[in-house]
Amino acid sequence: MKSFWDANVRQELLQRLEWLRPDNQRRWGKMTCEQMLKHLSNAAQMVTGELPVKRRPSPLGIWPLNKAIIYWLPWPHGAPAAPELIAHDTAAWEREKETLLALTAQVVARENATEWPAHPAFGPLTQKDWGRLIYRHMDHHFKQFGV
Hints:
By secondary structure, the chain is an all-alpha fold.
């Protein structure tokens, strides 16, 4: 089971980021490629605690449904994101990419943290949960743009 905390898996994700181009066409959803990078950066800031995101109670936060979605169930295309994670304004392509790389390094630096922010939909998560969720989130959006 792939996790962001595995250095080889993380390297695979970073390689896919390198394959991304600003003109990659989305396969679903409404975001542009730049907005997707900003969205992933916003999500990374949520994980580091830099971007507070309001908890929105829903059935997705109830065990075992939250674990099933994080670990096994397929993710639907076009699922809603927390408003704080939606990218409204973006910088130039290279700047968004550099920002995501820097924030990815900040998330890696938190790997052994003992406290983690609650996810807006899934609620309180462990370090292991976050590793799986970060991987699946990045993988989902890279597939959205064909890499």
